[in-house]
Amino acid sequence: MAKRWISVPSRTKEILETYDLRAKKGFGQNFLVDPVIVQRCADEAHCEGLVIEIGPGIGSLTEQLAERAQKVIAYEVDEDLIPVLQDTLKDYDNVEVILQDFLEADLKTLVPEWQKQYGMVTVCANLPYYITTPVLFKIFEEAPQIPYITVMVQKEVGERFAAEPGSSQYSALSVEGQYLYKVRKLFTVPGRSFNPSPNVDSVIIRFAARGVSHEDIDTEEFFALVRACFKQRRKTVYNNLREYTGNAAEAEEILNRAGIPASLRAQQLTVEQMIRIYEAVR
Ligand code: SAM
Questions:
Q1: How far is the CA of 82 from the centre of ligand 1 (A)?
Q2: Which of 165, 189, 258, 278, by CA, is between 20 and 30 Å from 245?
Q3: CATH of 219-281, one of 3.40.1000.70, 1.10.8.100, 3.40.50.720, 2.60.40.10
């Protein structure tokens, strides 16, 4: 008999009723109730060794990851969901649920250990929207060796991460994401695929590590420079740099050394050009 997945709307409803659960806005809870979307998301996630999930909710995506991966480690901050997950995922002995704020997880120690044990470590999650950027930057900074991060995010945020130079959505966020990863928008998920339905659509995006190491770059300094270059989007990169350095001649000299015309705006610059500006600043 075909399995009745957790994300089948009537099954989700039953689970929520059985445990008298209401989605908590404060934890960004919107449960996926669309088995096709959930399975497609898991199919895209490169589930080979261990998959880290952030926010399993009642387990709908976790279940699909557990079907495909050797091991799933899921971080959930809402203690009320722990007994629910123990029940909904009881058929899977390859799932470990950790009751912890993911932002507190010690990825620097854990990911290398998991890599030794399971080979590949990847991330797949329907992210709580209120902490999308902090979660992603934590992974970028603490576990840059993770080759694939496949996440559902608010459409607007996903489009900014994946935007190409020259497009209206291209921003500091695009450069910061694309500095280490190729970012691809995979597909859109309509609000009706969730319970409760959010007012906005979502997208699934994938960060695939570019396999480059920027050993000479201090990421914090680089990101500060990128943000400064985008500070006033309508101004030229020269004007923004002049404000950043506090010195017009220095701003001009930096752009000369980097080989970037002073008339361009940050929105038109590729990640490589931004790196050239950083090197010239140094
Ligand atoms: N994965 C489930 C799904 O797709 O139906 C639920 C996704 S829901 C958008 C976000 C989940 O993240 C919720 O279960 C919420 O409790 C959890 N969450 C919120 N903040 C968290 C945090 N700081 N650390 C770990 N989980 C968190």
A1: 12
A2: 165
A3: 1.10.8.100
Reading across the β-sheet that carries 202-209, which strands appear in turn? 95-99, 71-76, 50-54, 121-126, 148-154, 202-209, 181-189
Are 9-209 and 219-281 in the same CATH fold?
no
Question: Residue 152's beta-bridge partner residues?
Answer: 126, 204
Cα 2 to ligand 1 centre (Å) = 27
What are the pLDDT digits (tens) for 18-73? 999 999 999 999 999 999 999 999 999 999 999 999 999 999 999 999 999 999 99
119: left (phi over 0), alpha (psi -120 to 50) or beta: left
Q: 75 CB under 6 A from ligand 1? A: yes
